[in-house]
Amino acid sequence: MTKTIGIYVFDEVEVLDFAGPFEVFSTAARVASRVSNAPPPFSVTLVADRVREVRARGGLRVVPSAGFSDHPAFDVLLVPGGDVSAELERTHVIAWIAELAKRASLTASVCTGAFLLAKAGLLGGRRVTTHWEDAADLQRSFPELTVEKDVPWVDAGDVVTSAGISAGLDMSLHLVARLASSELAERTARQMDYVWRQR
After folding, report:
1. How many other CB atoms are found less than 10 A from the CB of residue 60?
2. Domain 3-191: assigned CATH number
């Protein structure tokens, strides 16, 4: 059965934070189709507050295919990082993340996306991680968390957080293994010519 992956994008989102996971899940779907006639294991949608041009870090312009009011149901919600200072103050964004997480079977973050999950009340007293540069700030801002350093990701069950930027690739491959199979994750990493850090 196809798992729907929703990746939130916003102004000043880090490019690899969202594009890396997008590539992993879409490549996994393509690789799986070569060996099976079954429905693809993953379908990926970029979603923003509304369908509009989003200006990512470095000036990359991205147009998501869905907005808050018209996206499909998501099995997995993935929140990337970047400069999240403005997003933390957008109450409707935090409320949307909190509401989506109730309906999704799994919520994940890349890098400073963990701040948005924490602000939405999704991390509780969990073990989490984020970009090494922001770990102390995350711990200070949300002292109830246990922020782990020097790990590519932390799997806390229904919430998975990753370290910075390229670590989102490692976490996404872990999610492919968890949601589909280790074999598909390994074949996906090979197809991407990527050395997967499996912890």
Report:
1. 11
2. 3.40.50.880
